[in-house]
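User: Quick sanity check before I run a bigger batch. Here is a single chain. Can you write out its predicted 3D structure?
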Amino acid sequence: MEDEDDPVVEEIPVLLSKTLAEDLYLLQYPVKSSTAALADSRVVNCCVKPINQQIKIDYALNAASANYDAFKGEQFALAADGKQRDKSQLLTFRSGTMDKQSFLSSKPIEDVSRYLVCVLQDGEMHATPLKGIVSMRQLFSYFDKQDKRTKAEQKAEQDADGVGEDDELTQVTVKFARAENEKVRKAREKSFNYLSKMEAEEPWCEAFWHEKQSSTAELERQKLFGVSGGASGSGRPDPDSAALSVHPVEYLDMLISKEKTDRNIDSLLPSRVVCMHKLKDLPLLEQLKVILTDAKVITFQQILRLLSDRTVAPEKVLRLLPQVGWLIRGNWVVQSEYIYPECSVSGTNGVSAEQMCKARDYILYRFTKCDKLERHHLTTITQLPTEEVREILRSIAVLNTASRTWSMLLPPNDTFLTVDEQEISDRQSAFWLARSEKFSEMEQCSSSAAAAAPPGSTTKRVRKRSTREGGSGTTASTGASASGTVSTSTISRQLSNG
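Assistant: Done. Predicted structure follows.
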């Protein structure tokens, strides 16, 4: 296959900075209006809860704006704080009108280890890991204070109206707390009520807010940049930057968790299908068997590109390939017993694995002699149903609709044989020559049957029936399949890219 024209347009070096790795948070505003310019608004108060990673920010409202409803703002402040304002009470709006809007954070993502903040400058990308990601949503606490104050006033009025009445007797039940074990304690600490209680008990810590134009904010932004050239200020190599100088395949392995990927893929793939991650754990001979079974027809160079270990010697691969495949005119094809295992039958008419392997071997033998085959001729010689012959041909050949003949999936590759492949081809040619006598007997038997038939009659093929279970009257049909295959789309995509 010809490689696609995919040139590298530009290479951008990536530098890792960990100066702010333990203190960098990303604030998101998912419900903010598109017209709200909070970045330019003045922050009147900011506080945090470090343990629970909560942030609360109060942005000032422009009460002098022509778009501000002063009457409604005073109503909100009066409803939240009431008419009788206690000096010891912490007022929601100190100015007597709604002059701010509050935002409270929540954590949409628990694990942020795979997220970075990147800055592109001077052709270099500087990346800093995140400590947390929080979503800022508007807080309407003044409505809660209004409801709480209204309920308290109603309860006070009810108590005043009920003075002098005898209190009703109430039955009291005493319960003793049982000693909890370690398992019960851990379950209780993970409950929503316990986490909400711990979150509410943590006090707010006031924080300083620096405007983005301030010198302090500019100094903090400078910490997002790593040191170019992989060296720290002391002149020694930076190990974090040097860790990024790895092979692309190793870098992808570091990004993708192998355990999670294997578990997710295994739950989606059909039975006896092996993913590319699991292929790496198999012995080399098993890898070759899986690749040949799924690829159907493949060149030696394509096999080397699909192997997980790119450092394996080609001579070692060539020593193992004849154990699982045959070299047909420069291309490798898996042996028939791996396509049709012992004691299995075909999925359409229930032909035994022995007959399917014999017919497939004959078709491969014919492809060593000529480039094109006719299906009806093969059906007559192999004495198999048309569906089974078509199934074998589709696994190794392609149909030419114009001439109604079948050719191998890949063109002959004889001119690209290496010295070792030529030796293997010579040995396998001797193998096919030794089996040619049996194949000649098959052809003679089919010719004799055709000659013995009465003139004008057609030779009726005998369909091979599947084995039946005693007394059941149902056909036991087990589809022939290999012990393991790689997803066809995965192999095809890698072959086209390679």
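The first helix runs from residue 70 to 81.

User: Great, the batch can go ahead then.
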